[in-house]
Specification:
0% strand, flat, 71 residues, single chain, mainly alpha
Length: 71
Amino acid sequence: SKKWEDAILAFEEYRKNNPKGRNYPEATFKIGVCFQSLGMKDDAKAFFKEVTEKYPSSKEAAQAKAKLKKL
C-alpha cells in the first residue's frame, strides 16, 4: 500500500505544478486507480468523476466511466 500512497503523492504533485498540463486527466485518473487499489472507493469515485466532468472527451474519461460503473 505504501507504493500506492507514494504514487498518489507524486500524481498530486504533478497536478499542483501543472494545472493545465496535458497529462492532468491521466494523473487524475491514476489517483483514482490508486485509491481504488487501496480499497478507498469514495475517494476513487471523486477522482473518476472529476475526469469525466472536466475532461469528457479524453480517453481517461471513458476509462473512468467504466470504473465508476464497477464501484
